[in-house]
């Protein structure tokens, strides 16, 4: 494509953040193209099929599908391009199976959850209600305003006029971490450990390093909008966004590997593909990780030439590091193994000291309890995953790699038999994914889940926004404010599209309802 026939925007990668950016821009009339190096859209929020099973690549505990307020970002993103997912409500977010026989169901009803937690810690009733009450304060501030680009002064002015108290409330909590708030009101070490695992189950960090803004969203939205599973699998979200993108004149090309960002006179002007083809646009957006975009230790071929890396990206890499990747087991099992009353999501931890260790926490998801059509008749899907570092997999020979996959998978299956006795004998189909799999198929540096602080940081304040130091070049996804999770990267997509829309002069004057 020549410079004379420029697109308005090219997005590198079709993760949910990239697709929300693309669809938001297309809905405003921009000419948009998404370039995806794999065969299907969605990235970590995609699905794949094997022998009649539809497996979710990542977790199936989905926020953002509520029908009220402004935090239901997946609902809103789809609606903006005339699309909608049929969703199935989950009555329980997850069940904790923790050391010393501690078990707790996080029910959709807030009062039931709080009552059960108070039963465990009756002496901490006041602290429990205060801590989770503050989470609601944060959530209500977020829910009171359209969540668009904090980088746009016009947006900030308009949203402050609409909801001044909410804006001031959010500003108060931006530099705060969960651990600081929890320790102010809670004294029992066991309860503080529970707050740690509450954070770790979605941020892969303990409370002391988890931003309060993110916690306010998650700890409250699970009771407000609730956990809702998209019928047909998580990958349906990306498929619907692609459908909406095309409906509004945008396009996506698969099997297109971008190898270079083109820079002209200090501004991004296009991309170069592995085939040598060059595509030009007014704005370039990377949905790749910040490491795959700007480079860093162990990154062989970043999208930007090392001589063009802005200084602030070097500074960012000192503050953040890649989180662990995951060892994932996608199992098809006999339906008779699992009762209909069993819950969909579980988290297992046998020792508090192992929470941040290799394969210390085990996550279990059984999406067929919500959508039986994901598996053949008389079968269930059991998705087991546990944090695992690339360094434990990267240097293995082919035979060593195969042996470790089977050995570690067997260990995970054995640990899950604590809640699903007889699991190993009920397996009909098995797929094993490692950090190497996530790096290869998802194009993520070290197969990482996303960035985590390498030191204690002041909440979300250091997290970069969508703009970069290179003119007309933007980032979107979990390497940007506000971080990991489908609803969070959808937020990033809304913000990125709004920032670009302001520069292109295509944003509507009024804020969304």
Describe the model.
With 513 residues, this protein is of the alpha/beta class. It contains 15 helices and 20 strands. Strands 1, 2, 9, 10, 11, 12 and 20 form a 7-stranded mixed beta sheet that branches. A hairpin with a 2-residue loop joins strand 10 and strand 11. Helix 1 packs parallel to helix 15, helix 4 packs across helix 6 and helix 4 crosses helix 9. The relative contact order is 0.20. The mean pLDDT is 93.
Topology:
Elements: E1 7-12, H1 16-27, E2 32-35, E3 47-50, E4 53-56, H2 73-79, E5 87-90, E6 92-98, E7 102-107, H3 110-120, H4 125-143, H5 153-162, H6 164-173, H7 178-185, H8 189-203, H9 212-221, E8 227-230, H10 235-247, E9 251-253, E10 258-264, E11 267-273, E12 278-286, H11 290-294, H12 311-319, E13 320-322, E14 325-334, E15 345-349, E16 361-365, E17 379-388, H13 398-416, E18 427-433, H14 435-442, E19 451-453, E20 473-475, H15 486-504
Parallel strand pairs: 1-2, 1-12, 2-9, 6-15, 12-20
Antiparallel strand pairs: 3-4, 5-8, 6-7, 10-11, 11-12, 13-19, 14-17, 14-18, 15-16, 16-17
Distance between the termini: 38 Å
Radius of gyration computed on alpha carbons: 22 Å
Overall, the morphology is globular
Strand content: 15-25%
Q: How does the helix and strand content classify structurally?
A: alpha/beta
The count of helical stretches stands at 15
Q: Which stretches are low in confidence, meaning pLDDT under 50 for 5 or more residues running?
A: none
Overall pLDDT metric: 93
* Helix content class: 25-40%
For the sheet with most strands, the description reads: 7 strands, mixed
Would you report the number of β strands? Answer: 20
